[in-house]
Write a structure and sequence with these properties.
The chain is mainly alpha-helical. It has one domain: RNA polymerase sigma factor, region 2, helix turn helix motif (Rna Polymerase Sigma Factor, Chain: A). It contains 9 helices and no strands. Helix 6 packs antiparallel against helix 7, helix 6 packs across helix 8 and helix 7 packs across helix 8. The chain is elongated. The relative contact order is 0.14.
């Protein structure tokens, strides 16, 4: 079972502070959106935000966990990105560019604090509902995984998220993280190895480890 299989699929949290993308998403392409913003279209920035805020929110959540800083960092991504669209050479690559900015903002945030934050390995494109008393087993798993990930170096946690959870190819993940593919592979392998070593010591993860070894 892959690492992401440790945590069950959850429904999106309807109370998520930034909300989800509205169902009536504009049909215009990312390239058209970028060009509209550059041309001064008054509503284009809002449409761009609505289309991509869930993806940005998702990766920041999985890197930080449900922390108070999440909203601020997501906002920082768009505050930086919108005036900087002239730097985007390929407008069709807008989503990857935004995720790269998000990774950079999170990296800076993590490095600025004396203690590391834990990330959540949640299924791609979904955010979790708050754990309830009825989810005791799931809560134990979340706690165990969070405790392990809290001990991983920042760059290794980021590598695990963007490749294993976001599902990006090695090349795309390396680009988002701003490093060569070979460097990214080393950090990914190191992060996975550390995770497995720690997971063997967690009783809550015994079932996952057994299925992985089968």
């Amino acid at each position: 079972m892959p690492i992401m299989g440790l945590l069950k699929r959850e429904k999106p949290d309807p109370s998520a502070p930034l909300g989800l993308v509205h169902s009536a998403i504009a049909t215009e392409t990312d390239s058209a959106l970028v060009e509209a913003v550059r041309a001064g279209d008054v509503g284009a920035a809002g449409r761009l935000y609505d289309r991509h805020v869930s993806s940005v929110q998702g990766i920041v959540y999985r890197l930080l966990g449900q922390k108070a800083e999440l909203d601020d960092i997501v906002q920082e991504v768009f505050i930086y990105a919108l005036p900087s669209l002239e730097k985007l050479r390929d407008p069709a690559a807008l989503k990857g560019w935004l995720l790269g900015i998000a990774v950079g903002k999170v990296r800076s945030h993590l490095r600025s604090r004396w203690r590391k934050r834990w990330l959540s390995f949640m299924p791609n494109e979904e955010l979790p509902e708050p754990t309830t008393a009825a989810d005791d087993h799931q809560a134990d798993i979340v706690h165990a995984v969070g405790g392990i990930l809290d001990r991983l170096p920042t760059e290794e946690r980021i590598a695990l998220v963007v490749h294993r959870i976001q599902g990006m190819s090695l090349l795309d993940a390396a680009n988002v993280c701003g490093m060569s593919v070979s460097t990214f592979k080393r950090r990914l392998a190191s992060g996975e190895s550390r995770f497995v070593v720690h997971a063997k010591k967690e009783s809550a993860l015994a079932g996952w480890h057994e299925s992985r070894s089968a």
